[in-house]
Predict the structure.
Amino acid sequence: MRRSTTRGPALGLLATALLATTGQLVTTANAAELVWARYGDLDSLDPHRATSTLSMQVWDQIYDTLLAFDADGQPQPHLAKSWEISEDGLTYTLALEDGVVCHDGSPFDANDVKFTIDRAFDEAQPSLTRTAWGPIESVEVVDPLTVKVSMSSKFGAFLPFLADSFSSIVCDTNTADTFGSSTAIGAGPFKLVEWVKGDAVTLERNPDYKNFGKPVENMGPPHLDRLVIKTVPEPQTRLAALQTGEVHIAEPPFDDIAAIKEAGELDIVVAANTGQNVFWEFAISRPPFDDIRARQAVAYATDPEMAIDIIYGGLSQREWCPIARGVFGNDQEFCKQFGYAYNPEKAVELLAELGYGPDNPLETTMFVWTGGNRHKLAEIFQAQLAQVGINAAIEIMDIGTMNARVKEQNELVDDPSPGTFDMMTWSWYDPDILYALWHSPGAYSGFTTPELDAMLELTRTTIEPEARLAAVHDVIKYLMENAVHVGLYTPGWEWVFAVRPEVSGFKVGAFLHPMFNDVEIKG
Amino acid sequence: MASVVEPARAAAGAPASRSFLGSLLRTPSGAVGLVVVAVLVLAALLAAWIAPYDPLRMAAGPRLAPPSWAHWFGTDDFGRDVFSRIVYGARLTLQIGVIAVGISLTSGLLLGLVAGYASGWTERVLMRLVDVLFSFTEIVIALACLAILGIGLTNAMIAIGIASIPFYARITHSVVLVERNKPYFEAAVAGGAGHLRLIFRHLLPNVVPTLIVVGTLGVSTAVLAAAGLSFLGLGAQPPQPEWGFMLSSSRDLISRAPWMMIFPGVAIAITVLGFNLLGDGVREVLDPRQRQR
Amino acid sequence: MLRYIAQRLAAAAVTIWVATVAVTLLIHAVPGDPVRIMYAKFQSTPEQLEAVRTSLGLDQPIHVQYAMYLGRLFEGDLGRTIVGDQPVLDVLLARFPATLTLAVASLAIAILVGMPLGFLAAYKRGSWIDIGAMLVAIVGVSMPHFWLGLLLLFFFALQLGWLPVAGSGIANLVLPALTLGLANAAVLARLTRSAMIDIFDQDFVRTAQAKGLPKTVVLYRHALRAGLVPIVSMLGLQFAYLMGGAIVVENVFAWNGVGRLAIEAVFARDYPLIQGFILFFASIVVIVSVIIDVLYAFLDPRIRYG
């Protein structure tokens, strides 16, 4: 019904609408169709134009990657069956699997890899992944099944990146300007049928799919005929739809999880090793948060343990580090030394030093992104901040908008409005995320210093694990002491799935990659 | 939103004499409406004394407690007292009504007066513009204003105020059209009265009774609209105890804590009903032609 | 008659023209640099931002911008959305049938419930039926759409489990249409009642009754037809309110129409989409009101236009 392109007058549209509604009755789900409901929609089908997990989870179904994470989050061979790294660590030569085809029937080969990487670096494209790919200088097609990637300097996070959704290989036949909005050709387990923005992405089985390295049992095409990924923002609506069977998999409302477990009608799947981290960050371009004491006051004044306990029960953990559990370099005890345990008196003291007091509260705004009961978490933090004399207005927005607003805030230098702070989030498989965020100019134009730049560069060029760990720890210490990136909790979004009992084989891989390759619907 | 404006259209000006309040209380709708509005005003003024708890205080009681003697309307998911929040919410609601109607009424009145008095080209252009804005519908104008101003309760009030200017301008204009052809006005013009005197001494007093009716009914429209915007997340922001916003945060808990959904809704409905009844009552008093109905 | 239709069409054209001016001005009323706000999420270089500005024509003087905007408009090009980078018109058209379905279904409910109620109340004026009906109506008018929606959702979907709560099929239409329809039925009942009372008081009805015509004939042949005229004249406005109400109701029931799209666009500051929505919505309302005005002219033979 969604594809009406009638441009006639109102009456024509009326007819279309009525026809479309009745037409719905005919398309019943006799084939194996699984409906997965999520709280938000993807931003783009183009893996270079969005950063949200909601987008990545869809790319995972349409595209494939050269490497794949195993259950523990270690990169394994996938479309690339082997690789060689040159002596100087600057050149990667990857050998590709034979016989893989793109959704349009064209063979998947080295040209597709080159097309993808060149596109990510194309100056004419607004690309979000440029930094994440690393210091790539050139990509060379040696022969159809061999591709050579040359770097200008050593880059320790390249192989894990090739297992991440951001490195999704875009087939070189994606030349239409509808790519990303209504077309997308990949080599993943499902083909795009259509995407109705804000409503649903409909995918169908790719009969030619071959699995090499994904941690699933099925080495061939998926069992499902169709996979519909629907946007249903209200948790109660998702729950009701799960109960009636309109939806098979969805994030349940947190307040109902205990009752769902008790009733036993739905299975609860909790993802492990999500790589997710939720943290405070601040607009440091202008007062109040250009002063470290204001940032520290916020950190001392808020009590994440209490807040996540109230909102998520036992389903979320305190996270002291700027990178999540399971990611290289995460060490709770190490991070805690530089962390900010709840201490409202200390916060009041710091605020007093800055000239704030009961009659002169610090006015600011807290950005939070939608979904997962985070607005409630924010309300608790707001109340805690109010107790020490920080009046924080809350603005709730989708994650894409929040990224944009944060960048905008960081770039507003001479503005009379007070700087904002935000509950930000990232999911990443490697501490290299810290480079993307805090190495100048910074993905969101945030806090940068020359010494931090030097420290971050070291985390990239150091390959030997122990030395790299030390380099990463130096960065963590610096970020925390300066109250730039203050860890709050993990995981942070869509890590709890309620699954209908007739659905089997649903797995959530490391770093929150839901996999439908093994999924079957009984009855 | 904005579906209750229709009854005001028939209102025409009439002299307001006798004991206005006494007559108002004799009409059933006026009496009920007046009582509801009075209760609302009292709740807003005396919120600090009436509300048993601080409306923002978390853990004032257990989380999601059903209605009880300690918490008449139960508690919300932060353990805040719903009754206290509703009482304080009356303040915000009255503020919304007064500010939004204030904006639209004064601007609409001026526009309508000027257009009606000026006649000729000025009138045609102004009223054409008003017609155009009117056909955009209020919600679209409000959304456009919010897109420019940004989200928030104050901006929502302004947006609603701006959105109904065309409506008030039209009504004022229609009354002025009638008045300017009456003999007393023509006599005043012939007598050489100045522009300002003609507008403010002669036209304005005759527009006022109609606008009292329309304005009273308009408060209910504004309250509904603001609650709607807050419900959508475009108006009030946490932790404001605004009723529409409270309703929207009750959505996730509708099956576990229906009291969070029921009481704010009842509060909005009663408030809107109160202003609607009051408006009907005022019209009956001011416009005897309507009374027989 | 033709002349009247031409006049109404001209007025509609003026309205739509003003809408195009308004949306062009809208982007300039936004505080800050709209291009930076819109493209902040991409790691764009200043050169790329400049290119975007050029492609949107924002580097041109405002009258040139407006001319460019109009030019593109005539080609059916309303620009591209910021989120997802899709053609605005396609996005709107893809979602519009859902809104129209909801509005038409609600209007049907409003007419089927509201008009008989108002008619009955007028016919039995002063009786307890009249008082009861008008009480129900004023409560209905005072009830927020979204609250009624939540109540219906609570009882029918969650407590009784009769109806699905999310989706786009016929069964999913019931609750949102009922919500919007009942709320507008209340308005329509009040309108119908006062229109019919006017008619009953008029001479020709009295004359017909005095002539001894059967009551039903008087009712159907004379009063009802005459009473329909003012009601139809209000339907255009009703439809506009319905469309406005749909914006809220769609968000309660996750009904995937343009209303939900508009709210998402405001949150995401997707200005091209907001501009497109305003223009689109205003045009629909204006076109519908022209159609209804013309119908009205046909219905009421007493009115001569010219």
